[in-house]
Each structure stands twice: as structure tokens, then as C-alpha cells.
Amino acid sequence: MTPEWRVSPGLSDYAQTLAEMEARAAAIRDGRAAELIWLVEHPPLYTAGTSAQPSELLLPDRFPIFEAGRGGRYTYHGPGQRVVYVMLDLAARGRDVRRFVSALESWVINALRDFDVEGRIICSKVGVWVDDAQAPQGAAKIAAIGVRLRRWVSYHGLAINVVPDLSHFGGIVPCGLQEPVTSLAALGRSADLQAVDEALLRHLPAALARVPPRQQAA
Predict the structure, then answer these.
(1) H/E run at residue 19
(2) Which of 49, 55, 59, 189 is 20 to 30 A from 28 (CA-CA)?
């Protein structure tokens, strides 16, 4: 049960991508399509999750704003950020949402190690973080995670900051948190999106092993 792996070139329109993702998730649930891991890059925009607070949208006229339908608050997507949409049938993989999110976190952390970056989890804060002596709390966020399930099929996913313009995050309070964001480029790594894609693909089997499909009864 290996998901399809798709990488879209160029900048993908967000509204069109969201519609295609929702349609694919429905097809997976109905048995009409295989699971999919879809890697895209978007033009600059802000997305609002179901818990987004109006006060956390600091510059509403800066970039287009989209209602994403996922969990979480405001996030930014833009050039130089790898967005990974993960559409898995969790009904066939144990129906354990916490384990699924943990698998996504470990997937990112393992991929970051390929660039000599040690990511970590902070209790009660979603996403992947790195130590940053310049940050007020000693940590900065390098990857965001926000998922939704519909009839036990996941969609949305994660976003890794590779070489984005970090000033673009200034129009929102990212994910409702005051800690700064960072990127591989800001950490002095010369990785590009293709290199990150290759790292993610290398570590995909280990991530999927955390949410294996159940054995079918004979």
C-alpha cells in the first residue's frame, strides 16, 4: 500500500490545489483512487484554519487570504517553501490520529537531519522546531503541520521552510505563536526544494511504517 508520489513544478494556484486535494481525498475514501503525497509550491498567500483569530491577521491586504478548512490558525505559504499534502486512508491504517501526526513530525525531523539540522518537538506546540539562541524562547519554527480528516482520509499536511522570504510571515501571527520562524537558508544551509524532496522521499518508508495498513482478514 504505497502512496502515489507527485511533485508539481512551478507555483500552484491555492484554490485549484485545494479543490483537487478535496476531490482526491473523496476518491480515496470511495476506493476510486490510491493514496497520494503531493508536493507543491504556492505563490505568497495566507491561509486561515478553523481556529484562526482575526487579531492574528496583522496585514490583511498584504497577500490573498484563503479559508483552508484544516485545523489550526493562520499560516503563510509562498515561494521557497515546500508544502506537502498528505492524503492517506487512516481507516486502513489504524485510525490513530495522534500516531499519524507523530509520523509526520518524525518524517520532517529525519529529513532535516540530512542537512545537519536537528529538529525537535515542543510539548503543546504543533510543528517542528530548531534551537535558536537569538529567539526569545530559544527556539524557532522551521515546519508547520496542519491536517484534516474526512471519513478517515487525511488531507492538508505540512510545510517546510527551505528558502522563503521570512519577512512574509510578518503579516500574521503564525499558528498563533509568538516564537519566530526560520528556514534552512536562514540556518546557513544551501538546500533547495529538490534536495528537500529527495530527503523526504528517502525517509518516507520509515514514516509510513509508523502508520502501517492493517492486515486484511483471509
Answers:
(1) helix 14-29
(2) 49
Owner of C-alpha cell 510578518: 170
- Nearest of 89, 110, 97, 75 to residue 37 by alpha carbon: 89
Active-site residue, 175 included: yes
Q: CA–CA separation, 204 vs 199, rounded Å?
A: 9
Sign of CA dihedral 133, 134, 135, 139: negative
Class for domain 4-209, per CATH? alpha beta
Residue labelled with grid coordinates 490513530? 96
Nearest 10 degrees: CA dihedral of 41, 42, 48, 49? -20
Per annotation, catalytic residue among 37, 112, 175, 208: 175
HSE toward the beta carbon, residue 215, CA cutoff 13 A: 2
Q: Which residues pair with 75 in a beta bridge?
A: 47
Q: Tell me the backbone φ, ψ of residue 87, rounded to 5 degrees.
A: -115, 95
How many other β-carbons are positioned within 10 Å of the β-carbon of residue 109?
Answer: 20
User: What pLDDT, on the 0 to 100 scale, is given for residue 23?
Assistant: 97
Q: Where are the domains of the chain?
A: 4-209
Buried b / exposed e across 47-62, counting CB within 10 Å, b at 16+? Answer: bbbeebeeebbeeeeb
